[in-house]
């Protein structure tokens, strides 16, 4: 058990106590003086502090499973905490200096007029480096990034000046074969070895007499559950993509925290007996890799879930425990009738997801419990699934309304229907009356439209910054018809 | 080799990509630096009865000062046009977040703790938030303005023009505001200097105004205040006047405590308390004939100015001056009134009122086309200004639109974008799709270049040539990413025949350039470039005179003759003397010149010739020239969800001879996409108390890279008729923003396809909600295709739409 957080910043080892551990990563980088040159790393910019612009993007490196190399991913440093970086190598734009001149990516941005005011630029550069890292890690043979890949890969970075076209062109110009890898910039066996060692020992910075603060980074499930019992008031933090935003908005002051994201037992991902099993700490980018082929509809939603930076840290348990009525994963898990495995030192219990939610941000989770995993029955072949995420802006936006349709079909007949909607009440809900009206009917526009009208009567949305109540009601109604049209085009049922 | 015309990278590009280009918050911490926070009004309207907790705040450990309006040393009001805005609230509370108390402390924790101890006791009043409420309560800023085209002054003649028109349409068009969303928020750092003076480093487009305002607030002479701006992380107009408050707050703390003080607004505070693009309402009436030729038009604008005048009257003026856009309208009346409301004072934003004027007429054009059942492009062509054609070249304010290539732009763009073919394809698509609607639009922009306030059309520049032949240039122009400094570098390099790496642009400072105008109105390169050229010319004259004697060669028969001296290719030489040894390297020459006591520095000045405008009569030549262009946009709307996909854009602009094509292209793309944001998803929402709800990128959605159309062509057209301005260039900053309207017009076109001839007004921005609710209202109550239900769902009674509109201020 360690009592300090150890991370590397641009290849330099840093060991920090509770003060720094509870800072956001961007504050730590920008406000503290870092060795070797006693430098504030101000290349990382802050333009929003809510994970939505990517100006603060840095790379987070963690040892791969076999411990043979470090894998790097982009994260938003403004909403991540330093304690989450325990056992990680953080690379900021300043770290690219090791290349001895501009990296190929930086040079392309210069040559293509990819910057105007320049404030967003370091973030874009780091996000591009993250994309290149992914190619290197996968041993990809591609020579250049594809345009669609660039658009999605950079969807977590906003720019107000350039209108993006020249940035897109810069990213397209990058030669993947010669693009420098972090491995080349930071060739350090010692660093790798230490990161691997660190990944095996839990951290607990205990409260002291005058200082109630505590930071725990458990590296095993028993340690996690022990800490959960020892510090009943501590906040669980996984990717902090919700907690970090709340912190920056002054809605949460971290006093005691327990990191859940480094517990190997909670990172399992796989398919067992027709069930998708996701460890609670699995990040969305990892989940996506497993489900992309099996659940193409969910894959489409995940492509638009936050941004790469958010998906690299954000976890499934975080999404579920945060209990937002517009959380994008919940409607699907509702219609798939997933269950949550909750663990505590007292043991395990399984809760159907519909029962987990008890009211607005009210969940069936005891003070000593954690969401250990989520089990989701995979839809059999005769089930058609449609998922909808309606948001003001297509990408990188929180949903206004979500919906999931699970229709079991026998030819053109609907034998069973499950529908869940979000954003129209305090929790995601199933719509039993609408489901009933679909069951036993033909898959036809009239059937779906009728169910849509019923559904509209079942929800009582509110008006807020993302949309008016009437708009939401209208969407709920229309999504039924849309589901029909979308299915009829893929199932080749005639449109009429 | 000339440098002008080359697409060299932005001068700070290497700094941008490495993160070494420093913005205000990146500048090294000063010794004993204080952190500044302020307490803002909790209500949008009312009176401040009492400030509780001042003493407790002052007593907080680490707190160095707690200041109110009583600590100001000068009059408590400012404003660029009407001086109606207090620095700090005395009595009347005018918008939520309006600064009341300023705190300086050793740490941000101490400052925040002190802020928590202060309680503002207010008597709350009912705020005025909307244009309608302001009109009802006659809450206005400035006079009601008129701009009547020559011949339309007479009421009867004016009415007669409408009576004679075969068709008339009328309606009310609304456009919402827009947040600048510069990436670097408002920020300033003040350092106390000797003898009570202060140096303010500010992220500002307007160092001179900052100097003036700080001097006034602190009761100092202007000579005691220096304002510097190294660079901005974006401005877009939002830092033309509104950077002043931040600068005043840090300066008050610095002069009170004798310690440096810095304030960098958080995004949420910045968005909540600073002004934005104005929301507008326009009542219009258009008379036209069967061919779509507009015979008479009337536009009555009301803008939501917010709590104080700021630049609102000037913004409104530009709206009125752009209500014609690119169309010659024989009889036209434009009126305008700024409304005073309890929102933060609205201000400059790229386009400066132009977009709202242009949106109004372009919406009108679509309505005209719909009424006649013809393609809007036909209507546009029928009304375009015609260069040199009598009766088709005078604006409603009297200026002649000349030397333009609008016709050519239309022709070339319609061709290159295959407008006609795509129009046909879209009609076919719409006829066959039950779930989607496509739309297309080609719309132009004609944007007047110059400040409409005449005196602002001036600039000065300081050029210092050193004895190694390198050059430093300082102007009042500020660099916010638009590439001004890069262009100036290219211009000055060419003046001396040097390569760009021998020229450097220096931090903008009122110490070097006094009484300067804001970097605004797209005129930064025009004005400062011309002033720099003027300075270079002075130095070159001295160089020529001196070199003439230095290089004269009596033996060869070359008497001293300045007109034969050339300053080119890094050399100074007499063009009659072909001997390479008789050429002096520029740096070597400068060294010799200095030893001979030749002045190698100069200050240049420029004032735009021939711009004049009479605000009272609404007549004159406010603009030096016009920048023009056009865009074609195509969109697809999901009829069931209102979701919009922007499929394709084709842009074509006349921006003269480009000083830097790489930078100009960036301005066109960036401006266009900002316009696209304004007309699609950027939605400012306030609650009923006047509090902004969309205070960050989570809820305020500027375009994302995935919003770039799949096909995006950007091109430029040559215009040999344009023979003005520095190096024959044209201003490029603002005009492309208005091309973003093509996307809104395409969305409107798609809705029109569903509307099937029914008239409708689409508000701007056309968010998914606005589109879906408009489509829903338009969908026929009776099921259109026999037994099939309406694809847009059950009709609502319309209450839904009006409820959502109520949230839009
Ligand atoms: C820019 C941005 C975009 C976003 N976009 C989307 C989006 O498109 N769709 C969407 O649904 N969400 C979105 N989110 C929200 C967020 O990313 C997701 O909810 C994410 O899944 C949260 O996971 P996390 O690990 O970061 O949670 P954290 O922030 O770490 O935690 C969230 C909550 O879960 C609790 N918790 C975490 N782990 C456990 C556990 N194992 N057991 C019990 N409780 C636990 C925490 O105590 C906390 O209360 C976005 C967020 C940001 C910042
Ligand atoms: S600062 Fe915007 S995402 Fe971090
Ligand atoms: S270059 Fe200014 S925000 Fe991207």
Automatic annotation (TrEMBL), chain A:
* GO molecular-function terms, A-Z: 2 iron, 2 sulfur cluster binding; FAD binding; iron ion binding; oxidoreductase activity
Q: Where is the FAD-binding PCMH-type domain?
A: 208-381
Gene3D superfamilies under this entry? 3.10.20.30, 3.30.465.10, [2Fe-2S]-binding domain, CO dehydrogenase flavoprotein, C-terminal domain, Uridine Diphospho-n-acetylenolpyruvylglucosamine Reductase, domain 2
One matching Pfam family, short form? FAD_binding_5
Question: Keyword Iron: yes or no?
Answer: yes
InterPro entries named in the record: 2Fe-2S-bd, 2Fe-2S-bd_dom_sf, 2Fe-2S_ferredoxin-like_sf, 2Fe2S_fd_BS, Ald_Oxase/xanthine_DH-like, Beta-grasp_dom_sf, CO_DH_flav_C, CO_DH_flav_C_dom_sf
Query: What are the entry keywords?
Result: FAD, Flavoprotein, Iron, Metal-binding
Q: Which SMART domains match?
A: CO_deh_flav_C (SM01092)
Q: The organism sits in which domain of life?
A: Bacteria
Q: Which SUPFAM superfamilies match?
A: 2Fe-2S ferredoxin-like, CO dehydrogenase flavoprotein C-terminal domain-like, CO dehydrogenase ISP C-domain like, FAD-binding/transporter-associated domain-like
Protein's UniProt name: FAD binding domain-containing protein
Organism annotation: Aeoliella straminimaris
UniProtKB/TrEMBL annotation, chain B:
EC number(s) given by UniProt:
1.17.1.4
Kindly report, in one word, the top-level EC class recorded for this enzyme.
oxidoreductase
The UniProt regions of compositional bias labelled Low complexity, in chain numbering, are: 798-809
Does the record carry Oxidoreductase as a key word? yes
The record's listing under SUPFAM superfamilies reads: CO dehydrogenase molybdoprotein N-domain-like, Molybdenum cofactor-binding domain
Which segments constitute the Aldehyde oxidase/xanthine dehydrogenase a/b hammerhead domain?
18-126
Instruction: Kindly indicate whether the keyword Metal-binding belongs to this entry.
Output: yes
Which Gene3D superfamilies does UniProt cross-reference here? Aldehyde oxidase/xanthine dehydrogenase, a/b hammerhead, Aldehyde oxidase/xanthine dehydrogenase, molybdopterin binding domain
> What Pfam families does the annotation carry?
Ald_Xan_dh_C, MoCoBD_1, MoCoBD_2
Cofactor entry: FAD; Mo-molybdopterin cytosine dinucleotide; [2Fe-2S] cluster; Mo-molybdopterin
Q: Positions of the region Disordered?
A: 778-809
Swiss-Prot/TrEMBL keywords:
2Fe-2S, Iron, Iron-sulfur, Metal-binding, Molybdenum, Oxidoreductase
One GO term in the molecular function aspect is: xanthine dehydrogenase activity
**Similarity-based family:** Belongs to the xanthine dehydrogenase family.
The record's PANTHER family line, in alphabetical order, gives:
ALDEHYDE OXIDASE 1-RELATED (PTHR11908:SF132), XANTHINE DEHYDROGENASE (PTHR11908)
Q: Report what the protein is called.
A: Xanthine dehydrogenase molybdopterin binding subunit
Give the classification, highest ranks: Bacteria, Pseudomonadati, Planctomycetota, Planctomycetia, Pirellulales
Gene, per the UniProt record:
xdhB
């Amino acid at each position: 058990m360690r009592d300090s957080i150890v991370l590397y910043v641009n290849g330099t080892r840093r060991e920090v106590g509770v003060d720094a551990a509870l800072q956001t990563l961007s504050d730590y980088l920008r406000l503290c003086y870092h060795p070797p040159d006693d430098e504030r790393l101000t290349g990382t910019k802050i333009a929003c502090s809510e994970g939505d612009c990517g100006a603060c993007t840095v790379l987070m490196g963690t040892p791969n499973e076999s411990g043979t190399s470090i894998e790097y991913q982009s994260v938003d440093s403004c909403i991540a905490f330093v304690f989450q970086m325990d056992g990680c190598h953080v690379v900021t734009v300043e770290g690219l200096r090791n290349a001895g001149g501009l990296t190929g990516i930086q040079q392309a941005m210069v040559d293509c007029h990819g910057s105007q005011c320049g404030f967003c630029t370091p973030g874009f550069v780091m996000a591009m480096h993250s994309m290149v890292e992914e190619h290197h890690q996968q041993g990809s043979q591609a020579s250049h990034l594809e345009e669609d890949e660039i658009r999605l890969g950079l969807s977590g970075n906003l720019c107000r000046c350039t209108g993006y076209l020249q940035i897109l062109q810069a990213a397209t110009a990058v030669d993947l074969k010669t693009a420098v890898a972090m491995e080349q910039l930071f060739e350090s066996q010692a660093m790798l070895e230490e990161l691997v060692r660190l990944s095996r020992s839990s951290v607990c910075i205990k409260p002291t007499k005058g200082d109630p603060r505590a930071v725990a980074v458990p590296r095993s499930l028993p340690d996690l559950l022990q800490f959960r019992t020892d510090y009943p008031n501590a906040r669980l933090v996984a990717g902090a993509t919700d907690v970090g935003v709340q912190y920056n908005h002054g809605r949460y002051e971290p006093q005691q925290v327990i990191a859940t994201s480094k517990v190997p037992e909670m990172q399992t991902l796989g398919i067992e007996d027709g069930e998708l099993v996701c460890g609670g700490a699995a990040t969305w980018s990892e989940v996506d890799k497993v489900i992309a082929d099996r659940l193409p509809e969910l894959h489409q939603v995940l492509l638009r879930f936050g941004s790469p930076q958010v998906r690299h840290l954000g976890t499934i348990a975080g999404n579920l425990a945060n209990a937002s009525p517009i959380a994008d994963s919940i409607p699907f898990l509702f219609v798939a009738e997933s269950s949550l495995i909750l663990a505590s030192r007292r043991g395990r219990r399984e809760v159907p997801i519909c029962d987990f939610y008890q009211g607005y941000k009210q969940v069936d989770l005891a003070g000593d419990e954690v969401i250990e995993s989520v089990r989701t029955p995979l839809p059999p072949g005769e089930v058609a699934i449609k998922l909808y995420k309606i948001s003001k802006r297509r990408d990188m936006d929180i949903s206004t309304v979500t919906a999931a349709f699970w229709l079991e079909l026998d030819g053109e007949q609907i034998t069973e229907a499950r529908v869940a909607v979000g954003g129209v009440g305090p929790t995601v809900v199933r719509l039993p009356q609408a489901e009933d009206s679909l069951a036993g009917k033909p898959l036809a526009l009239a059937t779906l439209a009728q169910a849509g009208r019923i559904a509209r009567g079942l929800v009582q949305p509110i008006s807020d910054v993302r949309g008016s109540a009437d708009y939401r009601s209208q969407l709920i109604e229309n999504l039924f018809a849309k589901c029909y049209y979308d299915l009829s085009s893929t199932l080749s049922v005639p449109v009429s | 080799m000339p440098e002008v015309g080359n697409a060299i990278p932005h001068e700070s590009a290497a700094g941008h990509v490495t993160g070494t280009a420093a913005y205000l918050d990146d500048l090294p911490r000063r010794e004993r630096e204080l952190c500044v926070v302020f307490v803002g009004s909790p209500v949008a309207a009312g009176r401040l009865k009492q400030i509780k907790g001042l003493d407790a705040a002052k007593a907080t450990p680490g707190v160095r000062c707690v200041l109110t309006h009583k600590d100001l040393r000068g009059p408590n009001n400012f404003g660029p046009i009407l001086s109606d805005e207090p620095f700090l609230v005395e009595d009347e509370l005018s918008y939520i977040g309006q600064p009341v108390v300023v705190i300086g402390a050793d740490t941000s924790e101490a400052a925040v703790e002190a802020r928590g101890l202060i309680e503002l006791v207010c008597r709350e009043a009912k705020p005025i938030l909307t244009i309608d409420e302001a009109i009802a309560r006659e809450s206005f800023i400035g006079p009601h303005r008129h701009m009547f085209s020559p011949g339309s002054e007479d009421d009867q003649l004016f009415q007669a023009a409408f009576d004679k028109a075969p068709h008339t349409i009328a309606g009310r068009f609304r456009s919402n505001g827009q947040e600048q969303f510069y990436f670097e928020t408002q920020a300033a750092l003040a350092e106390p200097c000797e003898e009570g003076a202060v140096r303010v480093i500010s992220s500002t487009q307007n160092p001179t105004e900052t100097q003036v305002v700080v001097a006034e607030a602190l009761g100092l002479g202007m000579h005691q205040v220096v304002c510097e701006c190294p660079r901005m992380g974006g401005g877009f107009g939002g830092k033309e006047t509104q950077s002043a408050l931040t600068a005043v707050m840090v300066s008050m703390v610095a002069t009170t405590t004798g310690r440096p003080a810095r304030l960098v607004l958080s995004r949420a505070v910045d968005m909540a308390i600073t002004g934005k693009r104005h929301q507008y309402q326009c009542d219009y009436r258009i008379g036209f004939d069967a061919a779509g030729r507009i015979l008479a038009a009337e536009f009555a604008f009301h803008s939501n100015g917010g709590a104080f005048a700021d630049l609102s009257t000037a913004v409104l003026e530009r709206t009125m001056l752009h209500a014609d856009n690119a169309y010659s309208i024989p009889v036209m009346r434009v009126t305008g009134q700024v409304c005073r409301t309890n929102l933060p004072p609205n201000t400059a934003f790229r386009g400066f009122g132009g977009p709202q004027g242009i949106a109004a007429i372009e919406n009108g054009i679509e309505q005209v086309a719909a009424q006649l059942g013809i393609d809007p492009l036909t209507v546009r062509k029928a009304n375009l200004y015609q260069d040199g054609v009598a009766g088709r070249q005078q604006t409603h304010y009297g200026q002649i639109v000349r030397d333009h290539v609008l016709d050519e732009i239309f022709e070339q763009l319609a061709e290159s974008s295959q407008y006609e073919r795509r129009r046909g394809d879209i009609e076919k698509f719409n006829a066959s799709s039950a779930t989607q609607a496509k739309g297309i639009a080609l719309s132009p922009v004609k944007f007047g270049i110059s400040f409409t306030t005449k005196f602002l059309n001036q600039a000065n520049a300081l050029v210092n040539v050193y004895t190694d032949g390198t050059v430093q240039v300082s102007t009042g122009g500020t660099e916010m990413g638009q590439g001004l400094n890069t262009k100036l570098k290219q211009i000055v390099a060419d003046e001396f025949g040097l390569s760009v790496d021998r020229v450097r642009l220096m931090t903008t400072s009122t110490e070097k350039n006094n009484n300067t105008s804001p970097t605004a109105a797209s005129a930064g390169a025009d004005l400062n470039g011309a002033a720099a050229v003027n300075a270079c010319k002075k130095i070159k004259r001295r160089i020529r005179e001196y070199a003439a004697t230095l290089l004269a060669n009596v033996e060869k028969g070359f008497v001293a003759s300045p007109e034969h001296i050339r300053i080119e290719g890094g050399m100074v030489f007499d063009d009659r003397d072909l001997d390479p040894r008789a050429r002096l390297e520029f740096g070597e020459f400068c060294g010799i010149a200095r030893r001979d006591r030749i002045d190698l520095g100069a200050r240049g000045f420029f004032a735009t010739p021939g711009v004049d405008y009479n605000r009272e009569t609404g007549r004159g030549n406010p603009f030096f020239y016009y920048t023009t262009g056009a865009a074609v946009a195509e969109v697809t709307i999901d009829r069931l969800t209102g979701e919009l996909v922007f499929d394709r854009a084709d842009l074509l602009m006349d921006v003269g001879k480009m000083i830097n094509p790489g930078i100009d292209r960036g301005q066109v793309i960036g401006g266009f996409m900002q316009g696209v944001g304004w007309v699609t998803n950027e939605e400012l929402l306030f609650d009923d108390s006047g509090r902004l709800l969309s205070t960050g990128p989570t809820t305020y959605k500027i375009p994302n890279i995935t919003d770039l159309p799949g096909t995006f062509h950007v091109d430029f057209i040559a215009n040999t008729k344009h023979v003005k301005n520095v190096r024959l260039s044209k201003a490029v900053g603002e005009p492309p923003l208005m091309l973003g309207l093509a996307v809104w017009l395409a969305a409107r076109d798609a809705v029109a396809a569903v509307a099937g001839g029914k008239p409708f007004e689409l508000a701007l921005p056309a968010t998914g909600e606005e589109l879906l609710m408009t489509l829903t209202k338009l969908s026929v109550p009776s099921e259109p295709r026999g037994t099939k239900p309406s694809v847009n769902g059950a009709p609502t009674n319309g209450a839904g739409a009006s409820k959502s509109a109520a949230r839009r201020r």
